[in-house]
Amino acid sequence: MSDIIHLLPDNIANQIAAGEVIQRPASVVKELVENSIDAGASCIQINIKDAGRTLIQVIDDGKGMSETDARMAFERHATSKISSADDLFALRTMGFRGEALASIVAVAHVELRTRTKDLDVGVKLTIAGSVLSGIEEDVCAVGSVFSVKNLFFNVPARRKFLKSNETEFRNIVNELERIALVNPHTAFSLFHNDVEIINLPEAGMRQRILDVYGKALNPKLLPVEVQSNLITISGFVGKPDSVKKRGALQYFFVNGRFMKHPYFHKAVMQAYENIIPVGEMPNYFIYFTLDPETIDVNIHPTKTEIKFENEQPIWQILVAAVREALAKASMIPTIDFDRQDAIDIPVYTPSSSNATITPPTVRVNADYNPFDLSSGRSERKEFDWSKLYQDFENSKTALDHDLFDETHADVAGNEEPVVSGSVNQSKELFPCYQYKDKYIITALKSGLALIDQHRAHLNVLYEQYANNIKQRRSISQKILFPEIVELSSSEALILPDLLDDLSYVGFELSDLGNNTYVINGLPSELESVDPVSLLKDMISKAMEHNNSIKEDLAHILALTLAKATAIKYGKTMSVEEMEHLIASLFSCRETRLTPDGKNILTLINDDELERRFR
User: Fold this and answer.
1) Using an 8 Å Cβ cutoff, are 67 and 123 in contact?
2) Rounded-to-integer distance, Cα 220 and Cα 207, Å
3) 252: left (phi > 0), else alpha (psi -120 to 50), else beta?
4) Which of 210, 363, 453, 587 is most open to solvent, judged by the fewest CB atoms within 10 Å of its CB?
5) C-alpha 433, offset from chain centre
6) What does the pLDDT look like over 533-556, one tens digit per residue?
7) Quick check: 109 and 83 in contact, CB under 8 A?
């Protein structure tokens, strides 16, 4: 039997490594920018064409490379950061495995121009598919210029499964924002198809966060600072009144590296326990600095998952640090026994030594009898049992009501309801009652219907907003004082895809430039809803779905807006309001489930009622 095990050629081995390291254009940006930071760059410019498919170019003013180093950099496991196995446990730089550049050149055409400050001329290398095709002297500035062209040109399957340009470019922006947040002393600029998208000058940590996510975040941040022999924790957490259900800005960094850590996330959430509503999420930007020998950053190919040697004590320190930040800002109630600066309540002193003080007295009517209906007291009203009985009899009567006939067919028989004309022209409705300001109870021809008032109204509004978008109808209400909304780079990238649909549901937006918009008009149904938060919520929801299909975006906008404007639980409704809501619900195309699949009503039929009273 012949031998079947053999070594893979370098070009195939590099393509396999690229499958782990280079997953999409954003992966290339991450690796090249981190290399620039490790090279000591103070200014980094990224040029992107066609979301990275055509070109990814990273220009830095770092220390550059010699000709020998430039050639060696593209070899597998070539690195300047490891000389012995012990170095693996003392790493403070980014790329160190020596696979990134080898993986990139395996799946793209790469050109490198680089020069060190002690040389008059630099070097230019051209590599394609792991093959060095050219090397020559080059007149260039100190630093490096990496140009990655035609990504995945020789792996068509990988190129085919890339997302849309909008999605891939948002991934690039997200990667750059993570790097920028932890490197505030480095200036970054990002261009897409020759249009500047991001320009971040050198700044302090707090200012860098505001440059990325907008200065409106400034008053909502609380500083966190704690030092111990084990770890130093710094950064910022959000005030409790700035929490949101989705789209919260939540970042952990360790020794200058972005990381994901669900265990430490739970620690932060525990610090906010009983301070924010369940399901709400706070913003946080938390930076850990500790001995690199106590962490393992190489347990995952993307190096975003990190193992800590002392997770439990760090958990306790983190909870205490966040709670201290909240307490200093008076976000956590405390008992203060210090009377310094307390209001002094003076003791009453009579103006004359002969004055007498009369204590207050309580007057009690000893003859009072709560069961006495004698004159002088208003008589108790007897409960009108006859009226209640008549209401019950009326509720049993099978009224000839066209609307409920059609609705019952939809609820009980799963048939399509027939919508006939205006609901305001229907005959008298069955009596309806509100239970605990949450449910509406009414009678149908064969039983009782229990309706969730919030979900019913949500469903009505969703169909209204969805129809407005589909029919391109704009129903807007001008606002007296326009609202200014600042967006992050990621939010600003997706907003143009939403503008048309937003206008059809009533939003009027004007672009002020620099990722800033003004809200001039709102949907007419909006009352007591913060339009800035609502707009950001809709953008965040669209970003979560990561989809640019127009039908999906229309659904997301209509559903998010309906959830924000639908009547809430706890609202007491008049009989007329309940009747109108029920009639509107039963005129909808779908009456049983909300657009996100939650039950709107439940039916207890006559047979079930009979069984319960046997």
Assistant:
1) yes
2) 13
3) beta
4) 363
5) 38
6) 888 888 887 777 665 555 677 788
7) no
Phi, psi of 165 (to 5 degrees): -60, -40
Confidence check: pLDDT of 92 > 70 = no
218 is written with which tokens?
């400034």
Question: What is the number of residues in the chain?
Answer: 614
Amino acid identity, residue 37?
I
- DSSP-derived secondary structure letter, 280: -
Q: Using an 8 Å Cβ cutoff, are 7 and 150 in contact?
A: no
Measured in whole angstroms, the distance separating CA 119 from the mean position of its chain's CA atoms is 49
Where do the domains of the chain lie, and which CATH numbers do they carry? 10-200 (3.30.565.10), 205-328 (3.30.230.10), 383-614 (3.30.1370.100)
Q: What's the N-to-C CA distance of the chain in angstroms?
A: 82
Contact 543, 428 (CB under 8 A): no
Query: What are 176-211's pLDDT values in tens digits?
Result: 999 999 999 999 999 999 999 999 999 999 999 999
Backbone angles phi, psi at 111, to 5 degrees: -125, 130
The pairing of beta strand 109-115 with beta strand 122-128: antiparallel
- In the block, residue with structure tokens 């799946």: 107
Alpha-carbon span 456 to 597, nearest angstrom = 12
Q: What is the spatial order of strands in the sheet that 432-435 belongs to? A: 432-435, 439-444, 447-452, 601-605
* 8 Å CB contact between 208 and 221: no
Q: Nearest to residue 148, comparing CAs of 171, 125, 174?
A: 125
Judge contact between 44 and 33, C-beta under 8 A.
Answer: yes
How far is Cα 270 from Cα 603, in angstroms, rounded to an integer?
A: 41
C-alpha to C-alpha distance for 38 and 40, rounded to whole angstroms: 5
Residue 482 vs residues 334, 502, 503, 521, 564: alpha-carbon distances, Å: 39, 16, 15, 8, 20
Q: What angle do CA 19, 22, 25 make, to 5 degrees?
A: 135
Q: Which residue has the higher pLDDT, 610 or 313?
A: 313
CA 349, 353, 355, 360 torsion-angle sign:
positive
Say if CB 173 and CB 493 are below 8 A apart: yes
**Edge-first strand listing for the sheet containing 476-486:** 476-486, 516-523, 508-513
In whole angstroms, give the CA distance from residue 560 to residue 568: 14
C-alpha span between 504 and 468 (Å, rounded): 6
Q: Which residue has the tokens 């000591």?
A: 40
| Cα-based distances in Å from 379 to 371, 376, 387, 388, 429 | 10, 9, 20, 21, 35
**Rounded-to-integer distance, Cα 226 and Cα 434, Å:** 53
Residue 500 host element (H or E) = helix 489-504
Q: How far apart are CA 194 and CA 369, in angstroms?
A: 89
d(CA 488, CA 165): 19
Q: Classify strands 516-523 and 432-435 as parallel, antiparallel or unpaired.
A: unpaired
In angstroms, the CA 523 to CA 357 distance is 64
